[in-house]
Amino acid sequence: MRFPLLAAALLACAGFASSPGALAQSRNAPNASAAPIVIKFSHVVAPDTPKGRAAERFKALAEQMSNGQVKVEVYPNSQLYRDREELEALQLGAVQMLAPSLAKFSPLGVKEFEAFDLPYIFPSKQALYAVTEGRIGRSLLRKLESKGITGLAYWDNGFKIMSANKPLLAPADFRGLRMRIQSSRVLDEQMRALGAQPLALAFSETAPALRNGVVQGTENTPSNMYTQRMHETQKHLTVSNHGYLGYAVIVNKKFWDGLPAGTRRILARAMAEATAYEKTIAQRTNDEALEAIRRAGTTTIHTLSPQQQAEWRKAMAPVYARMEERIGKDVVQAIRREASGR
């Protein structure tokens, strides 16, 4: 009988019974007499964010639909692992589920996901969903299987804004600024195209780095900025919507394949409902966070005019030529066609 994870991790974390009869039964349906199957779901953001709320919704749905035969333990705010550690932990079976940002898959050799980091690649959420919910999105998730990972869904956060202790209204305003980015060659090129000095830092390290002056600015969504209190040390914020931040919900493939078929169906249904919920709250959560930042009075919020947006687009346009070969020109072109409705 094949165990779904490393044997020790399975007995401790998945809760499968050890007798041959119980294991045979567990292949097809949840075993009411067995200890619950435990899913450790680790992520790096606060609970009061789109991803954090969706993780809690998935937990509630999975436990309810399985009648308690599945227990989901959610660990937010890098409680278990930081950005650079969590994927390795998943592959080793130390956790069963993650929802990393899409740029995180590049170090695994799946560079196609870096296309989501390209500036202004998605003109709207509808254009984004045409990609993530269609053939391209499914194809990208399948590329993770050879890495021991099964992709379950795409979760949304939103379009990013810029912050610093000076107004960022024109590309020239970035010149010489040390700007925090998540680890991504595309985002590195983006900041360099603006004249900034990019520094890749884990999400958990960003707010302290802003407070201590290690970096002078950053990009992120309003919900992430607000829940990490970045606005308290950033005097200016620009609503630029220049890039997108999203996630893929993933599981350890051996763990997933080793679950009873009935349990997989239950978890897939719970994930589908949690994903639909996540999409409904993502924009609202970011809008509320931006308004909360405005009310806090610590940060001046700027909105780019159409002319300023055009200047930003022009400055960042060379990123495509520099990154197409790395990502795959065919992938970039396919996403742009799908996003534009052609």
From TrEMBL:
Residues 1-24 form the signal peptide. It holds the Pfam family DctP. InterPro entries: DctP_fam, TRAP_DctP, TRAP_DctP_sf. Keywords: Signal, Transport. PANTHER family: C4-DICARBOXYLATE-BINDING PROTEIN DCTB, PTHR33376. Belongs to the bacterial solute-binding protein 7 family. This is TRAP transporter substrate-binding protein. It comes from Massilia agri. The lineage of its organism: Bacteria, Pseudomonadati, Pseudomonadota, Betaproteobacteria, Burkholderiales.
